[in-house]
Amino acid sequence: MRIELQKRARVSTLFSVLSPLLALVLTLIGGAILFWALGKNPGSALYSFFIEPLLEVWSLHELAVKAAPLILIAVGLSICYRSNNWNIGAEGQFTIGAITGSILPVLYPEWHSPMILPLMLLMGIAGGALYAGIPALLKTRFNTNEILTSLMLVYIAQLFLDWLVRGPWRDPQGYNFPQTKSFQIEAVLPEMLASGRAHWGFAFAIIAAVALWFMMRFMLKGFEVQVLGQSERAGRFAGFSARRMVWFSMLVSGGLAGLAGISEVSGSIGHVQPSISPGYGFTAIIVAFLGRLNPLGIIASGLVLALTYLGGEAAQLSIGISDKVSRVFQGLLLFFVLSCDTLIHYRIRLLFAGSQAEAKG
User: For 88-98, how does the pLDDT look when each residue is reduced to its tens digit (9 = 90+)?
Assistant: First the structure.
């Protein structure tokens, strides 16, 4: 017996729209089964995971803090994926953006100027963009696979960060902890409201999402992204360059990931340390697809995925389960999103040896 996928002649518009919601429902069902298997009451566990974190003002601020890097990275990835360029290394670009943006407060802690924070943000964007430019160069010059190169560069960035904070950037007065000096007040991204920790990184994420939505909806560049993503040959007939699109999409994606990195370090942490991300760059891939690669949809999906981080922490305290359960929820969500999309566009055929029998799944 052989299983094949056969492309459907017509794709249901209704199911295409409802696909993310269906994936969420299936994820909740899968989560309930998971909690039951762990010996926890599914209703109480899901309440602790998804409702309890939304009941306090401070937790809403934490939701914005965790959603900001996810949205920033995901809207950049959406441009890559819609143009058929597969950047999987946003985690590394996030890390390099945090490093390059932190050069000024780490190396020049005595510099007190209102210019330091804008320069940090610009340096973070430049660092992330240049790091994303490496797989872009390798693809356009040597025809390498950007999936592999961008992914491998993640580990280089993480090891470089670890070396920096344990070596030349370590705070000599930090009691041998692997971290830099705390940033001066002028280098800290300020809070948006006095009622909590939510900083201006969340505003950057919303602005970036709206700007890229406008580009995709109303500008020629957005039309170019869509045409080249659907058919490179058709794009060439229209006068569009696939090579330039590789550079454009990767630099935009890397720049936004770098902005997310320096915003996280400056706004949430206040110094550089070996671990600055719980996996935002990889989780943002789920955010991008759950948002249907639409920048406005990514805002909503970013908040949902941020809730899984908060829920993992809340459930760890409330019902005594590992915070790693949040990773399980994220994996389930990605699985069901991709599964629903696959079944919307394809039907399953069961082929038996010596016969043409078919069965729909």
Answer: 999 999 999 99
Residue 360 exposed, middle or buried by CB count within 10 Å (0-12, 13-18, 19+) = exposed
Report the alpha-carbon distance of residue 157 to residue 165 in Å, rounded.
Answer: 13
Could you tell me the two tokens for 185?
């007040």
Backbone angles phi, psi at 247, to 5 degrees: -65, -45
- Locus of tokens 């629903």: 340
Task: From 129, 142, 126, 122, select the one nearest 80 (Cα to Cα).
Answer: 129
**Whole-prediction pTM:** 0.90
In the numeric block, the tokens 């991008």 are attached to 288
Taking alpha carbons only, the member of 165, 51, 184, 41 closest to residue 111 is 184
Centroid of chain to Cα 266: 18
Length reported for the chain: 361
Spatial separation of the C-alpha atoms in residues 155 and 139, rounded to whole Å: 19
User: Under a CB-based contact definition with an 8 Å cutoff, are residues 78 and 294 in contact?
Assistant: yes
pLDDT of 185-226, one tens digit each?
Answer: 999 999 998 878 899 999 999 999 999 999 999 999 999 999
* DSSP single-letter state for residue 268: I
Q: Are 296 and 210 in contact (CB under 8 A)?
A: yes
